[in-house]
Write a structure and sequence with these properties.
Elements (H helix, E strand, L loop, with lengths): L4 E6 H11 L12 H15 L1 H4 L4 E5 L7 H5 L12 H4 L2 H10 L4 E2 L6 H14 L3 E5 L13 E5 L10 E3 L1 H8 L6 H8 L14 H11 L2 H6 L6 H9 L4 H8 L14 H4 L7 H11 L2 H11 L20 E4 L3 H13 L3 E7 L9 E9 L2 E6 L13 H12 L6 E3 L2 H9 L8 E4 H8 L7 H8 L7 H4 L13 E2 L12
Parallel strand pairs: 1-2, 1-4, 2-3, 4-5, 7-10, 8-11, 11-12
Antiparallel strand pairs: 5-6, 8-9, 8-13, 9-10
């Protein structure tokens, strides 16, 4: 019989991360929903991906309860530097709590006890019962809990293109330079600016690692404080009276009384099934139309939750695609993008490596089925005369670098690197569909073909259909669009 697994989510940590990762999504009446959508996507991913969840049958989403905790009694300035929660996030919390329960997750908030301490206490109890624990968090403090039965996963750590971060004992050592049992010592020396817990002045992660490797523990460092020279040694000696307080503050408690919210893991933390009726009502309230369709299709009672998608396949005579080959056409399109509220743009290049890529063209769109392509370096037999690359970039510089001109694209970090190599620093990026797909549909493919298949009810047209009005091939077989540069498992960049 396989071992049981407990899956714990640091809800307070992911609230903020979802809020800042998502665009400013709102309902028609103006209610903010971005954090709600990000949280739902993350929680669904955890349940759907057995490699992440360890096949958990028990779990909980843990949030900080309002009010003070025992650490405030220990240190009056604890978390005193934190700004008030943004009002738009405050307004989403009740809906997030409803969503958590509708998704089948137990929700825990224990008055007077921080989420970290609730998680630590449950993980310790699970270990005593012979269970494994997976903790989904972005909080470095919880690395002190990692052992042979406890691992951390961070589903929002991989926006730079790597896999989901998974910290077992070796992972903690690789990331922090010390094993899990020394994390508390490391945090005590470095401090925790997020919680307003000072460390030793001028001691950063490298110095902390160096001292712990040399002396073995915080206690041994204190014993040898007189022998440590330089400014950092002097600062260490000044902090000796403070270090026990800091150590107490950064150490999570594993013996909190969680009753009556948790009587036992088996009795109180069973992961249930999603409640389709409750989810449908919540998705309707938040206007999450794609998820509404999924529920209706699964029930075999697809209802019209949004206008028909006939526009996904526009008739050929309504397509307004243009190849820009002269200054008159370029100036006309500059006027159009400067007047538009939102413009989609993309680059065509010769390499997947942005540092080696040669820019051969740019595309712009101001409305569905209305777009242009500006070739600047296509070289093949019969290629039309094109505007010079430097000239085009200089004419577009004002719009590209204007933070007030909203832009949308796919994997725009790549395009930004390419354009910066030509002396242009894009600003005003309002949406990146690759990143948004990663947050909202983390378990799905994120390339443009896949997004088009899911959200336009059909695959997109090959780029060669409209580039140069179909008359000519791209600069070479090496030409790549940034829309092609992200597929699962390579996560967003």
């Amino acid at each position: 019989m396989s071992e049981k697994t407990l899956l714990l989510v640091d809800g307070s940590s992911f609230l903020y991360r979802a809020f800042h990762a998502m665009p400013d999504l709102r309902t028609g009446s103006g209610e903010p929903t971005g954090a709600v959508r990000g949280m739902v996507a993350m929680l669904r991913r955890l349940r759907a991906d057995g490699k992440l969840s360890g096949g958990a049958t028990h779990g909980a989403v843990v949030f900080d309860a309002p009010g003070k905790t025992f650490r405030d009694d220990w240190y009056a300035e604890y978390k005193a530097n934190r700004k008030a929660m943004p009002e738009d996030l405050v307004r989403q919390i009740p809906v997030i709590h409803e969503m958590v329960r509708a998704l089948g997750w137990p929700l825990l908030m224990v008055e007077g006890i921080e989420a970290d301490d609730v998680i630590a206490t449950l993980a310790a109890e699970a270990s005593r019962q012979g269970m494994n624990t997976v903790i989904s968090t972005g909080d470095k403090d919880l690395a002190q809990l990692v052992d042979d039965r406890v691992v951390l996963v961070n589903t929002m750590a991989s926006r730079e293109g790597g896999p989901v971060e998974r910290l077992d004992r070796d992972g903690v050592k690789t990331r922090f330079g010390v094993p899990p049992e020394r994390i508390v010592d490391w945090l005590t020396l470095v401090g925790d600016s997020v919680d307003n817990v000072p460390g030793v002045d001028k001691v950063g992660p490298r110095t902390a690692v160096k001292w712990l490797e040399q002396y073995g523990s915080l206690e041994a460092i204190v014993e040898h404080a007189a022998a440590i020279g330089g400014v950092v040694g002097e600062n260490l000696r000044k902090a000796l009276d403070w270090l026990p307080v800091a150590r107490r503050l950064v150490t999570v408690k594993t013996d909190c009384d969680l009753r009556p919210q948790v009587e036992s893991i088996d009795a109180s933390l069973d992961l249930g099934d999603e409640d389709p009726a409750a989810l449908r009502a919540l998705f309707d309230r938040c206007e999450f139309r794609s998820w509404l369709r999924e529920i209706d299709e699964a029930a075999g009672t697809a209802r019209a939750t949004e206008p028909a998608t006939a526009a996904a396949h526009a008739p050929a005579d309504s397509l307004a695609y243009e190849t820009v080959l002269d200054d008159a056409a370029l100036e006309r399109w500059i006027a159009r993008i400067e007047a538009a509220d939102l413009v989609a743009f993309d680059t065509e290049t010769t390499s997947l490596d942005p540092m080696a890529a040669e820019l051969v063209g740019l595309s712009l769109s101001v409305a569905p089925w209305e777009a242009c392509y500006v070739p600047v370096a296509h070289r093949y037999a019969g290629a039309p005369a094109q505007l010079a690359r430097e000239h085009v970039l200089e004419r577009l510089r004002g719009w590209l670098e204007d933070p007030a001109r909203a832009k949308v694209g796919q994997n725009l970090k790549y395009d930004t690197h390419v354009l910066e190599n030509h002396g242009v620093r894009p600003a005003g990026i309002a949406h990146d569909t690759l990143l948004e797909s990663y947050v909202l549909e983390a378990h799905r493919n994120h390339d443009m073909d896949s997004l088009a298949e899911r959200h336009r009810a059909g695959a997109r047209s090959p780029i060669t259909r409209w580039r140069a009005k179909g008359r000519a091939r791209s600069a070479s077989s090496r030409c790549r669009s940034s829309r092609q540069r992200a597929t699962r498992p390579r996560t967003p960049t």
